[in-house]
Amino acid sequence: MIKESPQDQEASPSGVEGDSEYPAIGDLLSRLTAGDLIALAHCLTLVEKGSAPSALISALEPSLVNESKVIGITGTPGVGKSTLTGRLISEFRSHDLSVGVIAVDPSSPLRGGAVLGDRIRMTEHDGDSGVFIRSLASRGLLGGLAPTISSYIKLMKASGREIIIIETVGIGQSEIEVCKVADTTALISAPGMGDDLQTLKGGILEVADILVLNKSDFPTASVAFNQLLSISKREGQRKRELPILMTQATTGQGVAGLAEALLNRSSRSKSIIELPSGDQGRVKQELSLLLFERVQRLTPAKARELLELLQTEDAGLSNILRMLLKTERDQ
To answer: How far, in Å, CA of 39 to CA of 98, rounded?
Structure first.
């Protein structure tokens, strides 16, 4: 695993600060597509800082021809998501699959950067070049997914990562947001998580492909499993019945079966519910995140200008988009 300190994440490679530096961008992309993890780290840093030249991302499209599988791991805090993710990494690596992990962390209230808690819990993969883990600050975005998530996925695909795991903060609507960018989403629960089960009853099941009952060695695991089974069957009568898998992340029990299910079950089954499916949903999500990112990067003066525009009769979507694009060129 490539280890990055917070200082490393803020470092910016020289010669890749603007669209005019095409030779530097070309070199960076060549290294990226050759699997150079240092180049991947540099590209991710540029995207996160908002200083990535447009040529960097647009040049990625032709290279996205690999069969990368994007997996979403989500659920409320305390269910063992990070430990389970670490076990999944080991399972995928045992089959010689390269893995990239995007651990979406809550933002630091002081700096806006990732708290890095999830990555700290995955240090067992240090020294493995087949594993690349990057923390990403949610920056307050509703749903817990950072605005740069789509670009992160593209970059990891371009670097040749065969498995890309997104682990969310697990707060608010993160479950719904994950399903829009992941091929397969696992919703993690645990015995004794009463609020978690209430959330499942509230309709979150609609966005999951697999239900996972972690900590299955707990005394109340059978009760929790029966509750999940009842909820899943009721959901199946209306739309689809979801598989329920039991795991013990601390021991690894059930992880191999979960890994196989994540690879074989496709989120395209979600086309029968009222959510965008496949590429259409991902494009819509990417556009939404891109607009959010552009607004976040406005200077105070430009932000005031946008606010004034929104209060006028000219506040049409086309005018707002033109202003954001013009700001992108001017800044």
So the answer is: 16
The pairing of beta strand 163-167 with beta strand 69-74: parallel
Mark 279-307 as b/e (b = at least 16 C-beta within 10 Å): eebbeebbebbbebbbeebbeeebeeebe
pLDDT tens per residue, the chain (331 residues)?
544 433 344 433 334 444 444 347 788 888 998 999 999 999 888 887 766 666 676 666 655 556 789 999 988 888 899 899 999 999 999 999 999 999 887 654 334 444 445 555 566 777 888 999 998 876 655 454 655 787 888 899 999 999 999 988 765 565 566 667 888 989 898 998 755 565 565 556 667 889 999 999 999 899 888 888 887 777 665 566 788 999 999 999 999 999 999 998 765 444 333 444 445 555 665 666 566 666 766 777 877 777 777 667 566 666 666 666 666 555 5
First to last CA, the chain: 35
Length of the chain: 331
Domain spans, the chain = 65-276, 280-330
CATH topology assigned to domain 65-276: Rossmann fold (3.40.50)
* Strands of the 244-246 sheet, one edge to the other: 131-137, 99-105, 163-167, 69-74, 184-189, 210-213, 244-246
Q: Would you say 163 and 58 are in contact if contact means Cβ atoms under 8 Å apart? A: no
Output the CA–CA distances (angstroms, integers) from residue 255 to 71, 87, 245, 285, 292, in the order listed: 14, 7, 9, 30, 36
